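Ticket reopened. Same input as before:
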Amino acid sequence: MTMIRLRRITQIASLLAFMLLLIIAGLPGDSVPGLADIYPRMSPLLFVSTWLNAWAFPAAFLPAIAVLVLTVVLGRFFCGWICPLGVTLDATDKWLGPRGKRDDSREPLKWKPVKYALLIAVLLAAYFEAGLAGWVDPLSFATRLYALVALPAAEFAARLAFEGLRPVPGLGWIAGELYSFFRTGLFAAAQPQFHGMLAVFLIYLTIALLVWFNRRFWCRFLCPAGALFAIASRFSLVRRVVDPGKCIHCNKCVRSCRTGAIIEGGEQGFRGECIECFTCVSVCPTHAVSFRLSGARVQTEPVNAGRRQVMAGMAGAAAAVPLMRVAPGGAETALVRPPGVTEPDLFLAECLRCGECMRACPTNAIQPVWFQDTLENLWTPHLATRVGYCDWACNKCGRVCPSHAIKELTLEVKQRTVLGRAVFDHNRCIPWSRGENCAVCEEHCPVPEKAIHLREEKMLDDHLTEITVMVPFVREDHCIGCGSCEAVCPVEGRAGVRVTGVAQHVLEPKQHGRGLGGIVLSSLLPASPPAPWQADGEPRTAGPDDLFVLINGEADVYIKHGYRRALHQAYSDPFAPDTYYMDVELYLMANGQAAKGIYAEKAPPGGEPAEAGDTASYTQGQLLVRIGPLFMILKGEASRDDFLAMARALQANVPKAH
Amino acid sequence: MNRLTRRDFIRIAGAAGAGLVALGPSGCKQGFSRTLAKESALGLRAPKVALNGVLVSRGADPAKITRAAIEAVGGMEKFVKKGATVVIKPNIAFTGKPENAVTTNPDVVAELVRLCRGAGASKVLVFDRTCNDARRTYKQSGIEAAAAKAGAQVKYVTDNDFVEMKIPKGKVLKSWWLNKDILAADTFINVPIAKHHGSTGLTLGMKNLMGCAGGERGSWHVGHLDQRIADVTTALKPDLVVLDAFRILKDHGPTGGSLDDVQKARTVAIATDPVAIDAWATTLFGKKPADVKYIAYASRHGLGNMDLNDIRVSEITL
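Engineering reply: fixed in the latest deploy. New output:
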């Protein structure tokens, strides 16, 4: 068994393992083996980049540390033996590249490998919390390529083959049984499709076609992980050793070295560039070359790079970081992120853009972002709620994410995690716009108390006859933005109900039941207000989207803290309405935590505690009260006792929480 | 750059082309496959045995009360001949565990499989065309495991299992894709679970027949869901309806989710009249047959009797 044959077998085994793990990640089961995402976690580039980003040691990347340690001992074996992108490139180099004799030592462009500059750029960007690494890391790219392109294409081809064989007598039955097995055991439920999969394919094709310049062009000139490996293998114990007595300086090895690691003459080389493919060993006519433990000095420079690369890298980072904040499509989006993205900025830094979550998502809902938001978001995951929906009984994305950019949530917590809010488009929704009953959205809503409800609405049909239609509306205190409604809406094109992303937050358990979330705010107002107050006009209310109507300019503070609904009621002393008046402002927040947040924000430092609700704070002219998820502001020209009396009257109407 | 020969160019173009072909169509919106063979050998279903009224069986064990109900009407041999192919169609549409009363009780399904095998059936198929991922719903409902253990062939439905059939009695649904296995089977047993439903009020036996239909069922909901349910029943009249009311979903159906909405009614009802059994089942929820429009439309089609005063209800309690 020659080393080359051993290397080929190892490469094929590595690629098969890689593909198998991706297939396993995509299976519908509820448990995902911990190893499913091990390949991205083997990349030392992603390891260092994640470490710099989070400024905390990423334990998930222990495999990468193991690989680095092995590299220090054995040299840059990973690139030649394990890396799935490397294996793919070796294959396409052979199929798509020039046939016959070639000279790989020629450097087509007279500059040194860009990969060192790219490495510096990526690490610098990571330090400034810009997640560049995921775009250019080979394991991330390989995962993206196979998850978004290769595996779906293979599934499609297999489906075509099975369908094609069906009518063939005899063979058709076997095909049917095999297809059954594949569909339930190996494939995704439906043919996976991803936005821009064609573009990812073309990017790979472009890189693969660089073989017309040199073999392993990516590994040699572009791969920043390769650069890291090159630096790490500087002092490797296993080295390429040439027996000077046997070497006849024929330069066969120089010409056949696919990474240009051997210098003219055949004995010296760049140890960091060598990926230990053993080609030089096999072409040497005098068997002068071997790889073994040695301390011999066999190189001129450790890596084929210089100061210029470092400067270029720094310049690249300096240019890239602000560029990433550019939003080519305008930044109007409110992306719906997979459940587990609680801190969006940290997520952007930590996300490897690898596509594991996209492969894992059973409904094909998780799709890569392209240019909908800032460039930084390229290839990060978002829930395309028209394509699929976040399955109620699933929490796979958090489990497969290699860098824990998507936090792993228990199913119970995930079912209370609000990803977005469904909003009806009254111009497209069939009952609202056409006066015909529908309600597929309400049927599919998985929330136990239903986040979509139906109510009777009278409207005129096309013949101006009055008809009664069951129209849907969203219960925003229950909606978790899973997108089931949008995904099943039978309207052609843009759905009649659509999900808009919000900052992810978790509802308290009571919220999904008979807590105060469904409370009608006007029912809190006292039927007979304490003397001398009388209601001044009708209460003014605001829903989730129009708080600005009630509070001019401050609404975003409330929204930031998880605001749901509001009601303002003015009171005055009828005998002196301009002298004594009180405004009661009621805000229903998402939960107790949210109410505490806005209370803390609003409470002035010098306030004295008061006896009302769960907590209350009084300053001259204002009383703040918090009861569970309710936040109240009572303010105006009134005495402390007046405020407290009104607060207690409101409190008396708060139903007992369950 | 190395020299590019014509052969090299063809190889590269071929690879790029293959990639584009594999990705292009697979990247398009997947419509329902239209490559279905027209199989004129299949006709609409017409049951042969008619029971008088509804038999209601009550008790603590779902399998035992199912068996008792079937035996009380003369045994499964009445409906399943030796060597027959049977299709048992439970409700496995949404993800839920048996205690959530979202899917048919697995013990009821398994017992029916055993009874059919006992009557000499050569093949018992169990399947549903689900709304959520079938692999998950089949598993979580417990039906796949229980039915397979009892000797059924549990099947995952594909687009190829449907054929477009005309529905001559259909008022709104004039034709639709219907399940081939059901049309071809010797015996078709409809095994629904009784649940609340936002659109139709309740989902009982006839609503369960939606799982026998291919195509884009979402469009059924637009305007005339109840009429379409009645229409499809004219084409797929089951030989026997076994209504699982062991646990019923009182509210927030059909997806359910909260155990607060589940009530243990400990009942299984059987009938051959699809209208009568659904009409009777409305009483479990404190409703009347007229409250569920598709029952009235089905009655107008002549599919059965919805008058509770006229339906003979026999009860057995274990």
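Chain A has a mean pLDDT of 87. Chain A touches chain B through 62 residues (CB under 8 Å). Please confirm and we'll close it.
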